[in-house]
Specification:
- There is one protein chain.
- The chain has 795 residues and is an alpha+beta fold.
- Among the domains are: 262 residues, Immunoglobulin-like (Sandwich), CATH 2.60.40; 77 residues, Golgi alpha-mannosidase II (Immunoglobulin-like, Sandwich); 87 residues, no CATH class.
- Helix content is 19%, strand content 29%.
- The protein has 13 helices and 44 strands.
- Helix 9 links the parallel strand 29 and strand 30.
- The protein starts with 25 loop residues before the first strand and ends with a strand.
- InterPro entries: Gal_mutarotase_sf_dom, GH, Glyco_hydro_31_C, Glyco_hydro_31_N_dom, Glyco_hydro_31_TIM, Glyco_hydro_b.
């Protein structure tokens, strides 16, 4: 960022690593374990005092670490001891907490965790305890605490070292500060403590997750901040949705259970070290053992799995910046029907108030004659309404004074609001209640979804009702914001749905989120795909983005290529600078647009079933190949193609002027969905797009359920499900199992069965994870299923 002075700007991400380079700070290295109780896994670590001492050699200055003595009055402890402990949560999960002050490690209430009282697993056993170390083992790995020097080692079930903490004694380079060892600092500015949690990286190791990153999915070599921020771009390291989770291709993951500013240096400054700089006086780390799917399942067991949004949310959302009037909204609905384009949601962005962007939760009386009647009429046509809003209130907003007078705004600690706007304090239960009443009023009008925009700029200098400063509340703000809207929407409508931009760990419980303000370029399209997959590798099952890009008018050729990619993600919204409606281009474009949308609507039984399966497992619906095929070395660097569920491989056309591209096919056999061409697995192929400008491959052996294309999901004929079998060229199997999640009463019922000699056989027992047997009529469902058909794919 360019600036005249080295002064932090309002809302700017905080780089915690800078604190660990300051000569005025005092450094404490974790040197040895003074005592340890193997039965309770608790102990004390001795921290020795160091400083950065200037050193001149051969014409350059460096600041290496050197041991130092205290020169303080009155005399403080030279080398203090502070507590740490291990908690074995389950067979794959270990929690490690350590303090940097003389205080007990008390239980922490956490918005990020779904359970405040975590279990103490009996699946770990004390394996070794002697004067030098203690080792615990489970079926999936081991943890060893070495006493002098103090280290923690993590190994898999075969004994292979996964990673270990970096001690000062491990330094192999000439400079003692490379890499930063596991240490904490005492700031000369305010006496606050911050930690550097440093772990070894192995040659060839790759790390993933970390949030909705627009950069390379493999974080090795990158440096980024876990600090919610509006990047105003999809080409930088800043993130709307930073998530403090990283996991490795070596079979482990780490969740840093903090909300303070953190900075990740993943082999950026020093290739062999992954160092997390934490702006807090303790470490709270969850360490996971297992495959990528194991790690995501364990992480989402702690922080929550995504609920399944309603079926209608998987249809097309039609939007722009912005529909300004009832006449305009009704015209869009008319044109969608006139052009026979399936659609479920019409979204009104910033222009439905009397004054654009002035969020007062009231429809403009001059431009909307009868908003409630409009919503009712559109609902009869199959359309739902989504509305934009945000929690920032400008002085010109009529709600501004009320929010301040009632104490609902974040303050600066001196009796003033923390900025130019009154920013709603979601840590205040009364403010949440007031806000939810405003949202409920819209939902009672018939609105189906609320856009939860912004939320990244909670003031770091603010004072919050929670009695926490912005240092810890800034990153929690999106989580509180997401929760407030999701809960009132669920209460009023029965649907678990929001449309949010910002997020933090735990926000995946409140789907869904979209990728923000992306550029209308090939690079913007590619970055959106990377971001969606990266967020999925951070525990989020559902994700969307602005099809065609947001900032400017979508170039026709780009928009045409982007449409099928956007439709083949979990959720699909056309939004951004006008026009986004296809009829404002040309008739040929309308036809291409309709085909892309119809493609998804025809696949809706498959997409919804895969959505339910993904949510239950805590994995993304849009998933990188490495998640399904982690044992294939070739997939770990692929970030421009993906799997939609288990059986569809999607390769968008990402470059202008091209109609073909290289595609990697994982093990097995793959069939082109549009042309029928077969491809062998575990290799690369150069493939040309089909009639729809995208490449779609089906895993051979799959059974893909289809329905006739309807103009909305409400109109889908579930009696007309057709199972299409894509057989392997070598398959001789006569019996195959199938399953489908059937949406019913805002929930779903699992229906499972077999194909025997091309006949559909249904299991006699219907299963539902959300409904009891009195909530649906099994006989009606059996009658519905009896009309389903089966065919073998041939082309």
């Amino acid at each position: 960022m360019i600036r005249l002075y080295d002064t932090p700007l309002l809302g700017e991400p905080i780089d915690m690593s800078k604190e660990f380079g300051r000569i005025e700070n005092t450094y404490f290295m974790g040197m040895r374990v003074e005592e340890f109780d193997p039965e309770t896994a608790t102990g004390q670590i001795r921290w020795e005092r160091y400083s950065r001492k200037p050193r001149l050699d051969f014409g350059k200055y460096t600041l290496p670490f050197t041991a130092t003595e205290s020169w303080e009055f009155p005399a403080y402890e030279e080398s203090p001891t502070f507590p740490f402990y291990l908690q074995f949560v389950d067979a794959r999960t270990v929690r490690i907490r350590l303090a940097t002050r003389q205080s007990k490690l008390e239980p922490r209430h956490s918005l990020m965790l779904v359970e405040q009282q975590l279990p103490f697993s009996t699946e770990w056993a004390l394996h070794q305890h002697d004067a030098e170390q203690t080792t615990y083992i489970s079926d999936y790995g081991s943890v060893t605490i070495k006493y002098a020097p103090w280290k923690i080692e993590f190994r898999d079930a075969t004994g292979k070292l996964l990673t270990r903490t970096h001690h000062l004694a491990d330094q192999a380079s000439i400079l003692s500060s490379d890499p930063t060892p596991f240490c904490f600092i005492r700031s000369a500015k305010d006496m606050n403590r911050s930690l550097a949690a440093s772990f070894a990286l192995s040659p060839g190791e790759r790390l993933y997750g970390g949030g909705e990153s627009f950069l390379k999915m493999d974080k090795r070599g990158q440096k980024f901040n876990w600090f919610t921020y509006d990047p105003l771009s999809a080409q930088t390291a800043d993130m709307y949705k930073p998530i403090p989770l990283l996991w490795s291709n070596r079979g482990y993951g780490m969740f840093f259970h903090h909300s303070c500013p953190m900075t990740c240096d993943v082999g950026h400054h020093f290739d062999g070290a992954n160092t997390i700089y934490i702006g807090e006086d303790e470490l709270d780390l969850f360490f996971f053992f297992g495959t990528p799917k194991d790690i995501l399942s364990s992480y989402t067991s702690l922080t929550g799995k995504s609920t399944v949004p309603p079926l209608w949310s998987f249809g097309l959302w039609m939007s722009r910046i912005t529909y300004q009037s009832e006449k305009e909204v009704r015209e869009v609905a008319y044109q969608l029907q006139e052009h026979q384009i399936p659609c479920d949601v019409i979204h009104l962005d910033t222009g439905w108030f009397e004054h654009d962007w002035r969020c007062d939760y009231q429809f403009s009386s001059s431009r909307f004659d009868n908003a409630e009647q409009m919503i009712t009429d559109l609902r009869k046509q199959g359309y739902r309404i989504s509305l934009w809003q945000y929690p920032y209130f400008m002085p010109s907003n009529p709600l501004y004074e009320e929010i301040i007078e009632k104490g609902y705004a974040i303050s600066d600690g001196n009796g003033y609001i923390a900025g130019e706007d009154a920013i709603l304090d979601f840590s205040n239960p009364e403010a949440v209640k007031w806000y939810q009443q405003k949202i409920a009023g819209l939902l009672h009008l018939g609105v189906s979804a609320i856009k939860v925009d912004f939320g990244e700029s909670a003031p770091i200098h603010g004072s919050y009702y929670s009695r926490q400063q912005g240092w810890k509340e800034h990153n929690l703000y999106p989580l509180r914001y997401n929760q407030a809207v999701s809960e009132i929407t669920q209460k009023v409508t029965g649907d678990s749905i929001i449309w949010a931009r910002s997020a933090w760990a735990g926000s995946q419980r409140y789907p869904l989120h979209w990728g923000g303000d992306v550029e209308n370029t090939d690079n913007g399209m590619a970055a959106s795909l990377r971001a969606g997959m990266s967020l999925g590798l951070s525990g989020f099952t559902f994700w969307s983005h602005d099809i065609g890009g947001f900032v400017h008018r979508s170039p026709r050729e780009l928009y045409r290529r982007w449409m099928p990619f956007g439709m083949l993600t979990s959720h699909s919204r056309c939004h951004g600078a006008p026009p986004k409606e296809p009829w404002h281009y040309d008739e040929e474009f309308v036809e291409d647009f309709r085909k892309a949308v119809s493609l998804k609507y025809g696949l809706m039984p498959y997409i919804y079933t895969q959505a339910v399966l993904s949510a239950e497992q805590g994995i993304p619906l849009l998933r990188p190949l490495l998640l399904e095929y982690p044992n294939e070395p070739g997939v770990w660097q692929i970030e421009d193609q993906y799997l939609l569920g288990t059986d569809l491989l999607i390769a968008p056309i990402l470059e202008q002027g091209t109609t073909s591209r290289d595609v990697y096919t994982p093990s097995g056999e793959w069939i082109d969905y549009q042309t029928g061409q077969r491809y062998t697995g575990s290799t690369w192929h150069h493939i040309t797009e089909g009639e729809i400008p995208i490449i779609i491959l089906v895993r051979a052996g799959s059974f893909i359920p289809h329905v006739p294309v309807a103009l909305s999901t409400d109109a889908i004929d579930w009696t007309a499900v057709e199972w299409c079998h894509y057989p392997s060229s070598e398959s001789q199997t006569q019996t195959e199992h199938w399953q489908i999640a059937l949406p019913i009463h805002k929930h779903y019922v699992w229906i499972r069965g077999q194909f025997i000699d091309q006949q559909i056989v249904v299991d006699t027992t219907l299963q539902s994870d959300t409904l009891d047997s009195t909530s649906f009529n099994p006989e009606e469902i059996q009658k519905l299923i009896s009309q389903w058909t089966y065919q073998k794919y041939s082309k």
